[in-house]
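During the no-cost extension, the postdoctoral fellow (Dr. R.K.) reprocessed legacy sequence entries with the updated structure-token encoder. One reprocessed record is reproduced below for audit purposes.
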Amino acid sequence: MRNDSNSSERMLPSLGMIGLLMVAVALLSWAVPTLMGGVVAGLAAWSESARAWLIGGAIAAVLVGTLVMLLRHPAEPRERPAPRDLHHGALPPPARVLGQSHVRSITTERPTTTFNDVVGVEEAREELQEVVEFLKCPAKFAAVGARIPKGVLLIGPPGCGKTLLARAVAGEAGVPFLATSGSEFVELYVGVGAARVRTLFQEARKQAPCIVFVDEIDAVGRRRGGHVGVSHEEREQTLNQILVEMDGFDQRTNVILLAATNRPDVLDPALLRPGRFDRQVMLSHPDTEGRRAILELHTRGKPLAPDVDLARLARQTSGLTGAELENLVNEAAILAARRSQLQIRHAEFEEALDRVVAGPRRKSRVLSTREKRITAYHEVGHALVAHCLPRADRVQKISIVSRGVMGGYTRLLPDEDRNLWSKSEFEAAMACAMGGHVAESLVFGEVTSGASNDLQKATEMARRMVCLYGMSEKLGAVAFASDGTLGYNSTFGEPSPTVSPEVARAIDEEVHDLLAQARSRAVAILTARRDALERTAQQLIEDETLEGPELLRLLGPTEWEQAA
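Re-encoded structure tokens follow.
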């Protein structure tokens, strides 16, 4: 609402217009009778004294209005409306907003996460404990001439706790935590990302000591050069600004940069050199003890039934990350509440594990009698081949209940956590993958599209053996490609330029031979154990799920178990 001074200023100039109107009325009232020859009538209509007062008042009003208009401040020019976006119809953001850093700052309420909330990554905790001590007692390090790392890069697959570790460091040290993402620095307009980087580090210096956390830094820290276009120029300018800001850290400024990525191979070497990211902390999938500790952490305060064995559950969840284990516990609690249970039983954990690994149960998808029979023989084929091979993973469960995109699935788990794969283990895994395809062919005389995913996994495994791991007797110990390309162009599916046509043909032949050997191995096992295949498949059709001792009894004893 406008103030009174502005309203009075708008009313004063109108006095001049009123005076002009009064003068015009007086002149017309005198001139019209004169022009018509009625001077006497005009004088009779208006006396001299009345006309004098009217004309005098009008002149005074004109003079006052004119004076006010001359002394009044000139009006401010009207703002022109900003141009509208022709595509979206929205106004473009102001320039000052483009340069602001989208930082989620936690200053008034410091992170309450501590190292007690982070389990399963003991080595990473020890590496970051020094950062906490520096933020708490910087004089201790300065006394012996030590320099704390300016940056710490957390490397690991998704869900392993990189962000949680960064928050735990800030919580242990009791300092502000500035969090952002690498993608928030990348914009269409060149220079905007660099401005946001400057804003971020200026804010960090104001709140020092503090921790700056940049998640998914590979979005902006990719290797420079070899790209053409405005977007790449903007990204490189943003990366250059990050490099400058990290070099510009004052030794007396207690600001530490933590960054997370799962693609360290694409980062620029200048970003990884000492003086910027001095330390790289590797995180991996937790082992059995780590998974047990994570399960104990997330089940703390939850009512567990007496039949729940977290150690057994930890052995069954090989390969799951901390985030997946947390989701597993939450799904089990939801299932218990849905079933009106006062405690979380082992059955809820089993169902939750199936949901996490294979997806939710699809009750709306009802298999026909023929499809149910084909699926049962397919899954038993996988399980029987794995059961008979000593270097294969052990069979835990078979199910023909539709989950996610799968009509059924076989759960295989290793005896212990595996970090290295031998050639015999690869060959056993490929034979297991071929088991479903072979079972369909033996029983029904033809194969279905249900084996497509198994063939893809077996083919990729064979190509890795040849191109990456040097496990080909014909081609020798040679790596023909980096991880991810496998000797082929990842975009067009054509041979990589580093591989000649002759070598590419030899790679294809070797991959074909490995797959043929795996299939022959599965054929031999299922032909010799046809009775076990029929017996287990019929029971699976009736029960839909088989596991534990009952499953092992149906599959029967194996030669290598009897020999052991």
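The chain has a mean pLDDT of 79. DSSP finds 22 helices and nine strands in the chain. The remaining legacy entries will be reprocessed before the final report is submitted.
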